[in-house]
Amino acid sequence: MQSFFRFLYELIGTPQPPADTPVYRQIVFPNIGLLNLGISLALVIIFYYLINRAMGVATFNKLRHWTLFLVLNALIAFIVVVWQAKAQQVTDHSYIYWLATLNAVYGLLFYFLFSVILRKGSTNASTTPF
Amino acid sequence: MQRSLFSQLRPGLLAAALLLTGCYSREDLKSDAGGNKAAETTEASENKVPAAASATDAEPSSVVAATGPLQQANIFLEVSGSMEGFMPKTGADAQNTRFQQHVAQFLSDVNRSGSVQRKTFYRIKEKPYRDSYQQLETTVREGIREPASSTSIPAILDTLVSHYYQPNAVSVLISDFIYAPRNAGAVPYIKTDITDALNAAGRSGLAVSVYGYTSDFKGAFYPAMKTAAKRINRCCDTDIPYYVWVIGPADAVRRFDAALLKKAPGEQAHFGVKYLAPVSSLLNKFQNQGSWYYGEKDASKRAAGASYHTVAVSEVSAQQPVEFVLGMNLQTLPTLYQDLGYLKANLQLTGQDTDAKIVSVFEATDQTRASSGPEAQYTHFVKIRVTKMGKAARPLQVILQDKRPMWITQWTTKNDSNINQVGAKTFALSSLIDGVAAVTTDEQDQAPIFQIPLTLQPAD
């Protein structure tokens, strides 16, 4: 698990400053990775199963609604990194924001993948985004 | 409708819950540590640097010993004629010497100390005579009543190691240590005489700490070399050195030194005393440079008081050197080994396949002490620079060599017959010390004061 997230997040280079490498690899990467997966999945479930099925809302199934959730998810993924960096007391460095941006991109990706997999179960939005 | 919906939702929610609880935090790692520790330690001992690992394990256990107070300290004051000048009878001018002030204070400190259970005091004439603390203190303050004719240093040392050597006890000898051999031809044998005297009882683990002081001197001076005169009356215009030797088992000497002579002014040298390796750690956010991080597996925990000794280097070259600082707490060592000059001269770094070298050695400053970082715990720092290293993990050792301090040669004279010109020096002091060193140290393999094993490894 650690090595998977390490691979994922070190595509943009090793953590900076180097002294914090063990904290990033052993704590920050798994935390933000798992949170990102979990939150993306949660938002997909809320969009397809809660709003567009259980609640039966008929006016929230367009591409722009789906995109709203997509952007929201990316934003959360960005904030999660900044929050984790503070919580684990790593040294302030521009790297934190690069990592946050990368995590937001992964957030977009995870949200899209979960959408493709789970949209069929929705009654009102089974054809969103396409 | 509703119910069936929920049953369909359930797998997804479960998966989300599982993912969220899977997050790591420091607390988790800490509580895990207990379980993982056993596995980690076995792994570490099988790891790449068995030599370094076993050194750390073995070092403290060989020095570890009883805590609590020492059982006994025997304090011996030489009261031969040559010592009269240090302890002149108080005249009308009521002046006293620095020797009197210092030794009176030292005796009082010993007598009051809770670090030693039993304190016994002796005057040394031709043999030791038991005195009470008050009697000896009076002798120091008011001068020697009936000076002994002369006592030879080897004979005294022989007596001390033969009759007063006990585990957990020390003998403390206060004397001018002027050893006059029978004739000039015997001078080259001074070292041997001392060695034989200390070795007489065949004590293993014998250690000696030597403290050197100087004092004004008011009386007859008896030089060891009697070429000019047998005695110099109304001496001296110069200060005369005197010494406190602490003799006993290595562990007892170390503890006596730490308890009672820690803040001793004057000079010092230690022979055969063994010290615990000081508390030390690499510091990853203190004057660090280049791409490196703690190579320990549990480095992310950063528990309070944790120490790190592995450097994982991700990138190093002549253009991008790696610099790291090792913090050490040398407070438990004698002041000699805390002295920056001594450390700079005698701290060494040994490694393999690397050009690692010590760039600087420095002491804690108000700034480091007030820091919230781990550097606040350390009294001394060693900065090491690397531009080249091996392809796998290699041991790197910071070693403090045991080097005889300079003052011993500076305080030595070959001829004290004209002491006022020679100055504050002692006849053949370095030969006496040679004799001590021969007994207490293994000449084949001189043990360092301490060594701190580090590991230098490429980042994984």
Can you put this structure into words, describing what you see?
The complex is a heterodimer of chains A (130) and B (460). Chain A has 130 residues and is an all-alpha fold. Chain A has one domain. Chain A is 70% helix and 0% strand. Chain A has helices at 2-9, 21-54, 63-87, 95-118. In chain A, helix 2 (21-54) packs parallel to helix 4 (95-118). With 460 residues, chain B is of the alpha+beta class. In chain B, 32% of the residues lie in helices and 27% in strands. Chain B has helices at 2-21, 26-46, 50-63, 98-112, 133-142, 153-163, 190-199, 250-260, 335-338, 340-346, 366-369, 407-410, 419-422, 429-440; strands spanning 70-78, 116-124, 128-131, 169-175, 206-215, 219-221, 232-235, 240-249, 267-271, 279-283, 291-294, 310-315, 322-329, 347-351, 357-363, 380-386, 394-400, 412-413, 426-427, 450-458. In chain B, the strands form 5 sheets. In chain B, strands 3-2-1-4-8-5-9 form a 7-stranded mixed β-sheet, with helices on both faces. Chain B has a 5-stranded mixed β-sheet with strand order 11-12-20-17-14. Chain B has a 4-stranded antiparallel β-sheet with strand order 10-13-16-15. Residues 1-7 and 12-65 of chain B have low confidence and may be disordered. The interface between A and B is medium-sized, with 27 and 32 residues.
Strand order of the largest sheet of chain B: 3-2-1-4-8-5-9
User: What is the helix tally of chain B?
Assistant: 14
Give the radius of gyration of chain A. 16 Å
**Helix proportion of chain A:** over 70%
Transmembrane segments (chain A): 27-51, 63-83, 95-118
Organism (chain A): Hymenobacter cavernae
Protein name (chain A): DUF805 domain-containing protein
Keywords (chain A): Membrane, Transmembrane, Transmembrane helix
Q: What's the structural blueprint in terms of helices and strands?
A:
The complex is a heterodimer of chains A (130) and B (460).
Chain A: H1 2-9, H2 21-54, H3 63-87, H4 95-118
Helix pairs in contact in A: 1-2, 2-3, 2-4, 3-4
Chain B: H1 2-21, H2 26-46, H3 50-63, E1 70-78, H4 98-112, E2 116-124, E3 128-131, H5 133-142, H6 153-163, E4 169-175, H7 190-199, E5 206-215, E6 219-221, E7 232-235, E8 240-249, H8 250-260, E9 267-271, E10 279-283, E11 291-294, E12 310-315, E13 322-329, H9 335-338, H10 340-346, E14 347-351, E15 357-363, H11 366-369, E16 380-386, E17 394-400, H12 407-410, E18 412-413, H13 419-422, E19 426-427, H14 429-440, E20 450-458
Parallel strand pairs in B: 1-2, 1-4, 12-20, 18-19
Antiparallel strand pairs in B: 2-3, 4-8, 5-8, 5-9, 6-7, 10-13, 11-12, 13-16, 14-17, 15-16, 17-20
Helix pairs in contact in B: 4-5, 6-7, 7-14
Transmembrane segments (chain A): 27-51, 63-83, 95-118
Keywords (chain A): Membrane, Transmembrane, Transmembrane helix
Protein name (chain A): DUF805 domain-containing protein
